[in-house]
Amino acid sequence: MSVNFNNSSILSAYDSTERHQASAERIVRIVFVWIIIVVGLVGNSFIVAVLKIFPRMRTTTNYLLVNVAAADITTLLFTAMHLIPIQGPFPNGALGSFLCKFVYTNNITMVTLLVTTMTLTLLAVERYHALVKPLITSRRVNTDNIAYIIVGIWLVAIAMVLPLFVSVDHRPNSNSLCSPGDKMDEMKVYVYCLMALLTIIPFLAIAFCYFRIISGLYFENTICSRGQGPSTPQELGEKKKLVVLLMVLTSVFFVAYVPYGVALILQFSGMANSSDKKRVIFSRFKTAVQYLTLLNCSTNPFIYAIPSTNYRCCFRYIIKKILFRNTREEVHAIGLKRRSLPEVV
Questions:
Q1: pLDDT confidence of 338, banded at 50, 70, 90?
Q2: Which of 2, 78, 126, 134 is deepest in the core (most CB within 10 A)?
Q3: 141 in Cβ contact with 60 (< 8 Å)
Q4: What 8-state DSSP symbol labels residue 136?
Q5: What is the spatial distance between Cα 342 and Cα 29, in angstroms, rounded to a whole number?
Q6: Three-state secondary-structure class, residue 235
């Protein structure tokens, strides 16, 4: 038996191996992304369930953290739909327009990004007023107005992203299935301004608030000493843990979402339609940004749980309930834990 290793057979075998490796790599990426999505959905659902099950956890800070969890759940769900391949030709008409505006381009992530940014900024400002200026109660967020504030945050976020939803549509005759069409120049200016609002202003406000809080807690020793009566070491420790939690949460968010803003700016700058080499680099960058965004949504519940004994206890209770295990220890621990501050997670 003889085997002819001519050039065509070698190239064919090489191409087949490359296709197999690319296919295997794609499968690994898809599995990894879906693991992140499932973990994130479960973890953030736990955050929502904690406030539903435990009335004593219903503080304004925790309501705002649940709002972040709701934004993360929305991001994960729409990203999951975005990853589902469309079989056959792209639909025309109203369905094609809907898919372009909400699924294919995953524009809904812009809404959740704005919601999270505004919520984290509000958390920083609220902590600033609670700790640095405790005597000024008129500016405080409370359980009576928190629902209106959260609804307002979502409405403002939707209004800010409305130009994107209106302009992006299914355009079968253009280079891209979904694009703003002849409004591309206007959308570039809009995206640049939106990214500036999303990063510069919130960052400055958050940095100022946490700088004053850290200064009062660690250097000036003015927090827990004015107008609140004597504070125990436990109360001071709880306040420090809460500040650390919110700072870590905010830092991780900016690290994850600033690259997303850069990717969006590059997208509207025409990077996707440039040379082959730049398109490949941009495609890889977008993939990395997608992983980073999803990881941020999935790791937030762990950020809450690590410094907070209350959240850890509540998580254990929920898991044991799901597994039909005895929860007496958790009920006892949660019941005995004294809420030493008006806003402790």
A1: very low
A2: 126
A3: yes
A4: -
A5: 44
A6: helix
